[in-house]
Amino acid sequence: MDESPARYAAVCVDHPLPQLNQLFDYRVPVELLDEVQPGCRVAVRFSGRKLKATVMELRDRTDFTGKVLPVLEVVPPGAVLTAEVAAAARRVADRYAGNLADVLRLALPERKLRVEKEAPAEPQPVAAPTTTHWNRYIAGEAFLRAVREGKPPRIVWSAIPGEDWATRLAEAAATAAAAGRGAVLVVPDQYDLERLDAALTAVLGPDRHVTLSNAMGPTPRYRSFLKALRGEVRIVAGTQVAMLAPVEDLGLVAVWDDGDKNLTSLHAPQPHARDVLLTRAEMAGAACVVGGFSRTPQAQLLVETGWAISAVGERDALRAAAPRVVPIGDDADLAADPSSSTARLPTVAWEAARTALNADLPVLLQVPRRGYVPAVSCQRCRTRALCPECTGPLRLTGPRRPPVCTWCGRVDEQYRCKECGSTQIRAVVIGAARTAEELASAFPGVEVVESNASERLGTIPEGRRIVVSTPGVEPTAPQGYGAVLLLDTWAQLTRAELTASEEALRIWMHAVSLCAPTGTAVVTADGGLPVVQALIRWDPAWFARLELDERAELGFPPVMKFAALTGPNGEAEKIAANLPSDLGAEVIGPIPVDEHTERLLLRVRRRDGAALASVLAKATAERSSAKAEQVKVQIDPREIA
């Protein structure tokens, strides 16, 4: 082979057109031979336009028979895409029938010149933790020992109630870093990231890790990216934007609460952080943790197929940490005390709250919706109250106020039911604000605070108070809550989604995990339901197996692979009609999205998922080249995945 310097750069052009989802060869000028290298960003001329591109590899020859254009310039600061991330990006693009350029856009943050001029810092050593609480889990100590030895153990971890999950992940990351390997830890949101950031600092010491998220802004994010790229730190923690973060010698990946929809990227091709990290773990020979208080069927499938092992709490540890969980299925079981009736609390919930408050402990109420009364209906015939202008749902924003349209904001001063003519309305769902108002009357002298997505409380001080929270934003209490009350659970269980029960258990377990071991958790749902039984026994693995078996019987993910095609009427059907027969694809739909758009689902066996993605990517590229109307392709659509 010719030993002369490579003269051609195979680049991925930064352009979203599907037909450009391939590498293009450009000649490397002599003056740039020392600067052009795999992973660097360059400027090239493409179709008469100057575009940015990423060098994927260097070649000493090209098969292109036309005129090979030169690389115009190299964009500092040199290679920003590591070989490991480049290979993972290619795999992710193929899995999701997407463009490599789109995936690289997720991996490479916006460049900031000022940050590049900052002097790099010397990497700080990381010591392995001397003590951990992983011994409370079956296979926990064996997992850490394997990480310490540089092996690639893989676990699906179900945390016990009250677990300091952030510290457990920090201990695992410290173990990997002490062994000379890097770690990428991904959590659903900024609040979880702040908690993980604090835990990493406490376990590792300062300046030994960085965080990555959109909330931190472009400049700090680019600074963190460069620190990881240059090897100044070995550990990166972040939200889903960190799933392709560069770390030196990747030895551990971890995702927390993988059922949270925030872990799916909103940008094409919309990959899920869990699947990206699993891909990286397999390709890099890295350890893997898929953790949470609950467990998804996707995570359980990893156990069932032998890809990972289950790490659940030891019986004694679980018994010591779990509060008592009491189901209440009869709405007629209200306390005789008129105050409790006003607060719509069943007797057991009322007593649990009063006992906790008398012990000077806080009480947490989880309600499914924020606002005052977010949904109303006719008092007489129960027909949903809708706006007469746009037919949007009406809601109440406060006491003695007329209903307001959720969509257009119109105030309906003269509401009248279109079915029966009644002018009276009733609440369909009681919101957090209304619940807080009622509780303030029911428990005079007790402070009532509210936590929601727009006004989230991180933690509350010690002492008696009542916290009304919507799911996922419950604040922590220093000594745990004396009582956790899960209200209006039907609003979660009756959602018209495949994941309704799974999502209900996830948000319930998150709330109950905040309860003190001596406290009581009350769930207003039938105790005979499997999802409630899983909560009572704190056995998410059992419920995940049930869900997985049911989905296998019905032919739903993750047992089967789905693709959603959305586009102008008739166009998705054209793609489906040309699929190879050996794929055995089942066509579901099409379903109208609006007057001009339809949505069609394709279902294939799991082992044929990669072939389906490849066929759809090719079809999309061909349609784009022919300037046909575009059809959006989404693999593992969020609503059914």
UniProtKB/TrEMBL annotation:
<dbReference type="InterPro" id="IPR042115">
    <property type="entry name" value="PriA_3primeBD_sf"/>
</dbReference>
<feature type="binding site">
    <location>
        <position position="420"/>
    </location>
    <ligand>
        <name>Zn(2+) 1</name>
    </ligand>
</feature>
<protein>
    <recommendedName>
        <fullName>Probable replication restart protein PriA</fullName>
    </recommendedName>
</protein>
<feature type="domain" description="Primosomal protein N' 3' DNA-binding">
    <location>
        <begin position="11"/>
        <end position="109"/>
    </location>
</feature>
<feature type="binding site">
    <location>
        <position position="381"/>
    </location>
    <ligand>
        <name>Zn(2+) 1</name>
    </ligand>
</feature>
<feature type="binding site">
    <location>
        <position position="378"/>
    </location>
    <ligand>
        <name>Zn(2+) 1</name>
    </ligand>
</feature>
<keyword id="KW-0862">Zinc</keyword>
<keyword id="KW-0639">Primosome</keyword>
<comment type="similarity">
    <text>Belongs to the helicase family. PriA subfamily.</text>
</comment>
<feature type="binding site">
    <location>
        <position position="408"/>
    </location>
    <ligand>
        <name>Zn(2+) 2</name>
    </ligand>
</feature>
<feature type="binding site">
    <location>
        <position position="405"/>
    </location>
    <ligand>
        <name>Zn(2+) 2</name>
    </ligand>
</feature>
<feature type="binding site">
    <location>
        <position position="390"/>
    </location>
    <ligand>
        <name>Zn(2+) 2</name>
    </ligand>
</feature>
<feature type="binding site">
    <location>
        <position position="417"/>
    </location>
    <ligand>
        <name>Zn(2+) 1</name>
    </ligand>
</feature>
<comment type="function">
    <text>Initiates the restart of stalled replication forks, which reloads the replicative helicase on sites other than the origin of replication. Recognizes and binds to abandoned replication forks and remodels them to uncover a helicase loading site. Promotes assembly of the primosome at these replication forks.</text>
</comment>
<dbReference type="Pfam" id="PF17764">
    <property type="entry name" value="PriA_3primeBD"/>
</dbReference>
<keyword id="KW-0547">Nucleotide-binding</keyword>
<feature type="binding site">
    <location>
        <position position="387"/>
    </location>
    <ligand>
        <name>Zn(2+) 2</name>
    </ligand>
</feature>
<keyword id="KW-0238">DNA-binding</keyword>
<comment type="subunit">
    <text>Component of the replication restart primosome.</text>
</comment>
<dbReference type="InterPro" id="IPR005259">
    <property type="entry name" value="PriA"/>
</dbReference>
<dbReference type="InterPro" id="IPR041222">
    <property type="entry name" value="PriA_3primeBD"/>
</dbReference>
<keyword id="KW-0479">Metal-binding</keyword>
<dbReference type="InterPro" id="IPR027417">
    <property type="entry name" value="P-loop_NTPase"/>
</dbReference>
<keyword id="KW-0067">ATP-binding</keyword>
<keyword id="KW-0235">DNA replication</keyword>
